[in-house]
Fold this protein.
Amino acid sequence: MSAKHGKPMRGLMSTTSSPLFQGRFGRIFRSLPAANYGKTTEESENNLLALGTAMSAGFDQPKDGKDDEESAIPALYTYLGQFIDHDITFDPASSLQMQNDPDALTDFRTPAFDLDNVYGRGPDDQPYLYAGDNTFLLGEKIAGGTGEAFDLPRNGARVRRALIGDPRNDENSIVSQLQGIFLRFHNRTIRDNPKMSFQEAQKSVRFHYQYMVVNDFLGRIVASKVLQSLRKGDSYDRTKLKFFHWKNEPYMPVEFSVAAYRLGHSMIRPGYRLNDRVLLPIFPVEPGFPEGLTGFRAMNPTWGIDWGRFIDIDTRINDGSDAENARRLQFAYRLDTSIVNPLQKLPGSIASDAPASLGQRNLLRGLRLGLPSGQRVARAMGETPLKDEEILIGKATGSPDDVKSISSLGISAFENNCPLWTYILAEAMRHEEQAILPVTERTAVKSPRLGPVGGRIVAEVFLGILFGDNHSYLSLDPSWVPSAGADFKLKDFVAYALG
């Protein structure tokens, strides 16, 4: 029976016939044919379901101790990636865009790193987000976190929804509290610069965020050789963008949104320790874990995040204790073709239709939207495609027992015809780079990074969006650096907000 799956994102269905590199969604490789994985749609879907099952890891209890699946990337970067996705795919007209174009002459759905998901439509249109002095309202205090921890501001309904620019940033307890960090970064910017107007503070926050994305986040997930190929001297060069081009303004490529930028799904741990007392799985797991990190509700008053467990703002050395609540920085899982088990069994509140597996849903969405195969995209980019035996399915732990080639699945439809999402993750497994862990660990770990196909798509889209925004720091002042220095990173963003 043909598998049922969710409707595609609003606007995506128009991409198959889009005549221009324009509008909210489009294609980078319009001339490449859609990949099929069987003689019929039903056969294609069934083969993709089988691949999605193979990409599912066995059940793993939530834990915060070191394990072989960890990368060298602190866990908060996983959720920064989710936050970024919500920013560049935001729908409503933002206060920044309204300032740029007060007559609404352009399409306000153009993707941009402008923090629409934080600022919404601004204090004039959404005054209930603000405190009246150009700062954001914060929610109720919560315990267990670093310093004073706060929930997001919420309404008084029976299910208390967050009052924020983008409701999606309340979909789990970690991204919810990361949203709060952005609110507090803005508030401290105002507090430290009392003569700043709202627009000046917004610009400052935006520039710090964009700088962090370009100079920190990209380097964590994309191979250094790929990033270097986009530079001229010490700066990124818009003329180096070989594939992501548009007529008037950037668009959102489906090769990015449906394949390359779904890298974060492989980085998610089965669970996280929020603070000394609270260790939770992503979703409720029985027996033993009736609660999970699911959101869209008032924050549990004991779930404040100890940020030193998610990002390296703490310099205390891990004491090696095996105690359950031993203080330890948690790391994202490695980029690979393995998805933790909780994501293979999404709860009904998130996936109301079959399949419940996130991996299977990703693969089926790629089929529905007519994505080309990974090998075809590699050739179009001038790269030598991976051989089938080089496309490994499983965990990038370094153990041959944890992986098998895609050809071992015995599905002929995948011969030299790997789904783009799977291909990009498999490619990352072949581009490991040595990274020194933060001072709390003092060890070196090899971490997979997106390679010449996946990394190039992600980096070109990120840079292209910024170059296409006349009000980004790369367009207005590419030599701009934060006052804290050129080495400004996510940890510095968090530390400033908390201060």
Q: What stands out?
A: The domain at 12-498 is CATH 1.10.640.10 (Myeloperoxidase, subunit C). Residues 1-23, 91-109 have pLDDT under 50 and may be disordered.
